[in-house]
Design a protein that fits this description.
alpha/beta, TIM Barrel, seven-stranded parallel sheet, two-stranded antiparallel sheet, 11 helices, 44% helix
Length: 281
Amino acid sequence: MAFERVSVHGGHSGQFCCHARDRLEDVVRAYIDQGFAWVGLTEHMPPVDDRFLYPEERSAGLDAAAMATRFGHYITEARRLQTAYADQIDILVGFESEHTPGAVALAQRLIAAYGPDYVVGSVHHLAEIPFDYSPDAYRRAIDAVGGIEAFYCHYFDRQYDLIRRLRPAVVGHFDLVRLFDPDYDRHLALPAVQARIRRNLTLIREWELILDYNVAALKKGAAEPYLSHPILMQARQMGIPVVPGDDSHGAATVGLFLDEGMRLLQAAGFDGHWCKPGSSR
């Protein structure tokens, strides 16, 4: 059976994200060309303040205020595209959160101001360090929290706090914490880490949230998407919806590794009836 092509975490563009490429409209057209039934556009929320700018954002001459203005332009353009291409693809307009100090409150204000169709809840910082930026940043974050086990525990504690406070419809790349760790299987299996994973999954199930099956990990050379297989099977056993996300960062990465991800989901027992954010189960 051919699974419907969708992305619950897609649509980053160079127009609104400094580490992506192409106009948002070009990205949308790529989804249409590949026959996607629906896609969620999920550009990043702006940072709370200039402390959390990434190097490429500083190099582009941006500050937090400019990025807040750009975010407003993103919502306007995404809504235009949603209407313009409604007869070719179902577009959902969302955004991807952060969980730096003050970010949840800012995300709540953005939700009130712009009324997105949904939010992807993601954690990219620990000890105020963007651990996903580079292996060096990853190591600095580990050292800052006191070691690898503490790093994993802090990550899932912060994720739990984000879910509890923001209640995002989609939880993004659930185990991103393993990004630069070649020994992640062992660390994810540590009892203290497993307890936190189970706690977070239990809340996700109780609140009927969706897990992003993020195949962008394969683009970065990982052996498997986020979620790693043991967590994927836990989610399956708990009845949590898991939906493919290509986490595209330009037209060229639209749908990249999506078919492989869907094959893995099929092998894990998922039926391909993808839950759409905001829809009834």
